[in-house]
Request: fold
Amino acid sequence: MKKDFHISGMHCASCAMNIKSVLNKVPELKNVEVNFASEQASVEHDGDFPKDKVGSAVESLGYKAHFDEDNKDQTPEDAAELESKRELNELKTKLTWSTFFTVLLLIGAMFIQAPEVLRNPWVMLIFATPVQFWVGAQYYKSMWASLKNRLANMDTLIAIGTSVAYFFSLAVLLFEEQLIQLGIEPHVYFEVSATIITLILLGKYLEKRARGQASSAIRKLLDLQAKNATVVRDGKEIMIPVDQIVVGDTIIVKPGEKLPIDGEIIKGETSIDESMVTGESLPVEKGVGAKVIGATVNKSGSIRIVATKVGENTLLAHIIETVKRAQASRAPIQKLVDKISSVFVPIVIILALITFLMWFNFGPEPAFVRGLVSLISVLIIACPCALGLATPMSIMVGTGKGAENGILIKDAEALEVANKINYIVFDKTGTLTYGKPEVDGFEIVARDTDPQFIKNAILAVEKLSHHPLAEAVVRYLSNDTEVPEAEGFVDRSGFGVKATVNGKPVLIGTKKLMESENIEVTKEADKLAEGWRDKARTVSYAAIDNKIAALIGISDLVKPNAKEVVATLKKMGITPVMITGDNAKTAKAIGEQLGIQEILSEVLPQDKANKVKELQEGAKVVAMVGDGINDAPALATANIGIAMGEGTDVAIESSGVTLLRGDISLVPKAVNLSKSTVKNIKQNLAWAFGYNVILIPVAMGVLYPLFGILLNPILASGAMALSSVSVVVNALRLRTKKL
Amino acid sequence: MIVNVIVIILIIGTYVFFFMKKESKAVAVGNQVEIMVSGGYKPDVIRVKKGSPVTLKFNRKDPSSCLEELVIPDFGKNIKLALGEITSVEITPSEPGEFQFHCGMNMYHGRILVEN
Reply:
């Protein structure tokens, strides 16, 4: 049998030859091939593959063999995290040594009272050399690799800058007299090259640690996933890994355990802590038939659930995928930065050379040395990293913070748009109200018809409709009596329904429906309806045999915090708008309860998108908040769609922002988050641009003619190290921001 | 005098070296391609067919932190590349066009050309 595997750590073709020869000594193997370029080994073996033997043979030479099986349980995130940890440790070791040598060098260079030995330039050479070529090796490697592709990066600048200082000093030691003859002041700068490397390494170390925190949101989400679950198979309870669960499996979840996947409760009652996924702080009571979300925690009762979504289809998997995508997305604001970054380093090199020329030709004596020092300062102070990190860091922290609070942001563009919202349109049902209407008025107005028949006929027709209002009526009227069959059911979307019961036409719906069918609405009915509408009830008319038979008043409870949310939005300078299919009067009454003045009532579902379009006229930025199910076109038409849902039903892909729980207070929070994030991006960009635009000229020496100030390269490296760290730290501030 | 001449040559050299290089040629790839990550991406322009999944195998050899992250914005990918390892990314281009990939700080670039 043939087996291919990856070997890491090879750095030349002879490494491959060595590995080949040790593998040839493993008796089970034949036809060993090791390719240096692809870092792959290919072997043939009899029987089982002797993994351990091969692994230790490769390791004996200091390389590592990677077999596919090793990585089965390891996600790419795990691998990357291990890698970062390893890199951090390596950085730490280098930093410790680098600091040790640098401190000795600085003492020797700065203090006249320092021991003679530290001031000896040859000793300084000994201290500076490991810093330059061991600690600084990565800058050389990276520079060389880039130059081969005619590219340059920040490492190129550091490598050139420190090399100039180091090799000039070396030249001073070796050719002191010749330099003096050329009129060049012989001064060694070993402490400069070492300090630059140390400070930049320190900056890198701090930056790396901080960046680990910035991407912690994904890590946290991944850790939420349960590892094992108890599944009933063939009547037996067995413990299996979560990824082996299939749709339809019955799973037992005991109190205190995590729910492994998305499913539905088939037995038992419990309260579930969903805070980790939806951000909902109170446990949610659930019983048979209720949908449950994977990675939430079962608090009180033992339940059985049937798996409905597994693997990459679970809500948690969707959330993780969305956050990852968002963190990879690019903000439109970044286009300019991209243009600059791609030419930044070569331009800085040219500027540094020009700086040297200016000093050398026009500067005061010692001109050569001053030119050299300024050249180093320019190379070192330039910080393309801060520019490159500015936007992605803020987006990463911002979207991560959102996910922790139940706010999923699709991409960077959604963040930028949400920051500029003028109008927020609420699709009333399910956002401002619970979306669970209840009948709280039922009045029979036809005196000459059997009241029981009226009730039965209404029930028969409404049973066939799936409209939430109809469902409320069904709940209200349901009793044990026999219900007749309704025939010829017609749904007139936005108006009502029509059918025949016991040969009599039954019509249930709005006043408009009655008018269009030429049914006279009596004065008595009208008066009653008006009174109900003032109480914010939606009124349905029921006509039997072409005569008004009953009025049904239906209320949808307003969410308790809706009023506060409306007030908050107004304070933020955003105009809240309510859009609803309700009658104008009912809508106005609800609007008054909530403090919303802009009301679009009697809007048919298919017209919602047009209403949004009308609002957009005059370059207004309109957000639409809806449940994402029957208002999808309006959500898509709005500049930004905010879908609000409960758990697993949320349509994540379709909207710019998804709120993972039906809590309306998330709307201003989402706006706040995007405002803070965009502000943070702007701060970062201003800092990164300002830093380079101001400090590069200072390093060139523009302050010298005026104030006699010339930047010390050591200060330049300090500034540069601080600059990229501060961008990351500023982005991390977003994490503690109160939404 | 000699110093001036040398430095001016260096300035011109820097300009020519970095700004006057030829565009690299697109490499047509089937369902997978190994991209060396060392001082940039090699190949840095790849040509793929619309609709068929492609596995990009990034082999990071360069220790520079500039190259540790890989971003393919249009495909929503943002991955850390482990040093000395091959990190695979699968994409399925559904639209023809030109799509960028680049390092975390957007200093190194590559392009994916999607053709019908």
Observations:
- The radius of gyration of chain B is 17 Å.
- The helical segments of chain B are 2-19.
- The CA atoms of residues 90 and 112 of chain B lie 13 Å apart.
- Chain B has one helix and ten strands.
